[in-house]
UniProtKB/TrEMBL annotation:
Domain of life the protein comes from: Bacteria
Gene Ontology biological process terms, A to Z: CAAX-box protein maturation; proteolysis
Entry protein name: CAAX amino terminal protease family protein
Entry keyword Hydrolase: yes
Location of the CAAX prenyl protease 2/Lysostaphin resistance protein A-like domain: 118-209
Length: 218
């Protein structure tokens, strides 16, 4: 029961963190700098709260039954990052060849903010990846698999991987559902393979950093 309760707390907290800036803006009509500052504090604080909920006294779920060492976690985090870049490249090239648009309005908008307000990069590099891995991979993939394990543990993990990756793609809805769905599935596999959510977190953070840091001249 503790696993289910903590999963619900995590989802509720994530929803509050996600909606809070918009709610405050609707009441106080904030300026862009004020909104960005609130979002930064909100997302970083949210990431800390979710980490506490996810790692403090949290029962292990199905993917965490067999955990690899810290060294292996580090290696797979780097390999996972390399593969996700290759995966993105392949999918975007296929998208172009099929007559689709490879550009992402969501990414363009975020990078535009970072260019004019560099500290906003903290959300993209730290806050968002940490929260998304805890919500979409640890809770909606790993913990949910526990609830459905009465079917069959392997079937449960396949089903929840598809559910979490589909929701992950919808959360980034900008016309690239297949791309984000594939990224979500890959991060699920990394988590399952190592038994540590830190692996997919690392790959996710590195992936976002590769896009953001050049905008900052790094």
């Amino acid at each position: 029961m503790k696993l289910e309760k903590k999963s619900i707390y995590i989802l509720i907290t994530y929803l509050i963190v996600y909606l809070l800036p918009s709610i405050l803006n609707s009441f106080f009509k904030l300026t862009h700098p004020e909104i960005f500052n609130i979002q930064i504090v909100d997302y970083l604080a949210g990431a800390c709260i979710l980490c506490y909920l996810a790692f403090h006294d949290m029962p292990t779920n199905l993917p965490e039954k067999r955990r690899r060492s810290v060294g292996q976690n580090l290696i797979w985090g780097i390999l996972g990052f390399i593969f996700v870049i290759v995966l993105q490249t392949i999918i975007l090239r296929l998208t172009i060849q099929s007559g689709g648009n490879a550009s992402s309005q969501n990414t363009t908008d975020l990078l535009s903010i970072v260019k004019n307000y560099p500290i906003y990069a903290l959300i993209i590099i730290i806050g968002a990846p940490i929260m998304e891995e805890i919500v979409f991979r640890k809770v909606l993939f790993g913990n949910l698999a526990n609830l459905l394990s009465f079917i069959n543990p392997k079937v449960a993990q396949i089903l929840t991987a598809l559910i979490s990756s589909g929701l992950f793609a919808l959360a980034h809805s900008d016309g690239h559902f297949i791309l984000y769905g594939a990224i979500g599935l890959w991060f699920c596999w990394l988590y399952h393979h190592t038994g540590r959510i830190q692996t997919s977190m690392m790959a996710h953070i590195l992936m976002n950093s590769l896009v953001v840091l050049p905008i900052l001249g790094l």
